[in-house]
Amino acid sequence: MVEDNLMTKTLPSLFITVICPILLGLFIYLVFGSKDILLFHYIPLPDFLASFREGKSAPDWFIYNLPDGLWLYSLVQAMAKIWKGHKGSIIAQTACIGLAVGHEVLQKFGYILGTFDLLDILAYCLLGGLAIAFIKIGGEYTKTSKKALKESYNNPQ
Amino acid sequence: MKKPRVKLLAGTFLLLGIYWCFAVATSRVPRPLYSGDLAAWEGDKISFNSTDSVDLLNPYILLYSAKDKSYAYTKEITVEAGKTTTLLLEDFEDLKTDKTHKKKFRPQRLEIRAINNRDSKFPWGFSYVISQGAITK
Question: Which of A74, A126, B49, B110 could form a disulfide with B39 if both were Cys (CB 3.0 to 4.6 A apart)?
Answer without folding.
Answer: B110
